[in-house]
Design goal:
Helices cover about 20% and strands about 30% of the residues. It is an alpha/beta fold. The chain folds into two domains: about 80 residues, Signal recognition particle alu RNA binding heterodimer, srp9/1 (2-Layer Sandwich); about 60 residues, no CATH class. Strand 2 and strand 3 form a beta hairpin. It comes from Actinomadura decatromicini.
Length: about 140
């Protein structure tokens, strides 16, 4: 049977007004590496092998990724972001990272689960878990 797996690249459309907060949060709070920054696009590496691009408005980043059209005006509303998929972030020291994230001033979401769910600058929703935590209960085990 043919099957799929998740790749290691992701991109999200965000408002240009969120750019400085996004850069500060992902670089300074989460410790991600800002690989490239342009008027319309930032490329971050999360961990060793996951890449996420934040797409803003038209600018000089278009020349880097030929043939790709970025349209931040099509970004989801705040309510729609909350209905979208969340990504899971793992940290060795969950409590320390939790405090750094909350101290930054993100929107903490009320989810009936012991983990921190939050909306990052730009609207992405994340769940924070421990790197060695047993998460089998989420896998139907």
């Amino acid at each position: 049977m043919t099957q799929v797996i998740f790749g290691n690249h992701s991109a999200v459309r965000v408002r240009r007004t969120e750019r400085d907060k996004i850069r500060k949060f992902y670089r300074d709070v989460l410790g991600c590496e800002l690989l490239r920054k342009f008027d319309d696009k930032d490329d971050f590496r999360i961990g060793d092998e996951f890449y996420i691009a934040f797409l803003y408005e038209a600018g000089d980043g278009r020349d880097v990724d030929k043939g790709v059209t970025y349209a931040a005006e099509d970004a989801l509303t705040d309510d729609d972001f909350l209905k979208a998929i969340f990504l899971e972030l793992k940290a060795e020291d969950v409590e320390k990272m939790r405090q750094r994230i909350i101290d930054f001033g993100v929107k903490v979401l009320d989810v009936p689960d012991p983990h921190l769910y939050f909306q990052a600058p730009g609207g992405q929703v994340f769940r924070l878990v421990g790197t060695t935590e047993d998460l089998s209960r989420y896998e139907g085990n």
